[in-house]
C-alpha cells in the first residue's frame, strides 16, 4: 500500500488540500473544533420550555416524551458581512443562513491556505 502513491503517474487531474475551514456548534473554526473533539466538549445546546415556547414550539409538544430539546447552534449567524461578499443587506437578509456560512468558510479556507483571492490566476475549488 505504501508504494501505491509513489507508483502513480501525474495525469493533470491532481489535487492538493492546502487550506481548511469550518464552523460548528461550539467552534468558530477547525482548530477549536479539533480541541473540542480531543477534550470531549459537548457543544450541543439544551433548551428550556420557556426558550422553546418563545421560539414558536407548541406547548403541547413539550410534553411529548419523544420531543428532543437539544440542537447544535452556530454562533454569530447574524454577523455576515454582506458588502464584503458583494451582497446588499437586503439580499443577505433573504439568503439562507447556510449559504452565508458557506461564503464565510470558503473565504476562511483561502486565508488558512495563505492565498490572496484577488491575485489567484488559476482555477481553485472550495
Q: What does this protein structure show overall?
A:
The protein has 126 residues and is mainly α. 38% of the residues lie in helices and 5% in strands. It contains six helices and two strands, in the order ααβααβαα. It has helices at residues 2-7, 30-39, 49-54, 59-62, 89-94, 97-112; strands at residues 44-46, 70-72. Strands 1-2 form a two-stranded antiparallel sheet. It is extended, with a radius of gyration of 21 Å. The model has no long low-confidence stretch (mean pLDDT 88).
Topology:
Blueprint: H1 2-7, H2 30-39, E1 44-46, H3 49-54, H4 59-62, E2 70-72, H5 89-94, H6 97-112
Antiparallel strand pairs: 1-2
Summarize the structure.
By secondary structure, this protein is mainly α. Helix content is 38%, strand content 5%. The mean pLDDT is 88.
CA radius of gyration is: 21 Å
The strands making up the biggest β-sheet line up spatially as 1-2
Instruction: Enumerate the spans where pLDDT stays under 50 for 5 or more consecutive residues.
Output: none
**How far do the termini sit from each other?**
29 Å
Instruction: Give the helix level as a range of percent.
Output: 25-40%
Keywords:
mainly alpha, extended, 38% helix, 5% strand, single chain, two-stranded antiparallel sheet, 126 residues
Amino acid at each position: 500500500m505504501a508504494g501505491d502513491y509513489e507508483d502513480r503517474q501525474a495525469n493533470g487531474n491532481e489535487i492538493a488540500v492546502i487550506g481548511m475551514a469550518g464552523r460548528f456548534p461550539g467552534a468558530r473554526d477547525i482548530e477549536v473544533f479539533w480541541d473540542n473533539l480531543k477534550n470531549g466538549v459537548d457543544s450541543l445546546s439544551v433548551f428550556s420550555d420557556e426558550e422553546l415556547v418563545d421560539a414558536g414550539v407548541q406547548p403541547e409538544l413539550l410534553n411529548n416524551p419523544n420531543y428532543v430539546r437539544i440542537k447544535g447552534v452556530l454562533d454569530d449567524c447574524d454577523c455576515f458581512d454582506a458588502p464584503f461578499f458583494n451582497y446588499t443587506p437586503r439580499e443577505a437578509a433573504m439568503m439562507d443562513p447556510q449559504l452565508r456560512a458557506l461564503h464565510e468558510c470558503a473565504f476562511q479556507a483561502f486565508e488558512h491556505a495563505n492565498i490572496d483571492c484577488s491575485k489567484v490566476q488559476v482555477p481553485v475549488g472550495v
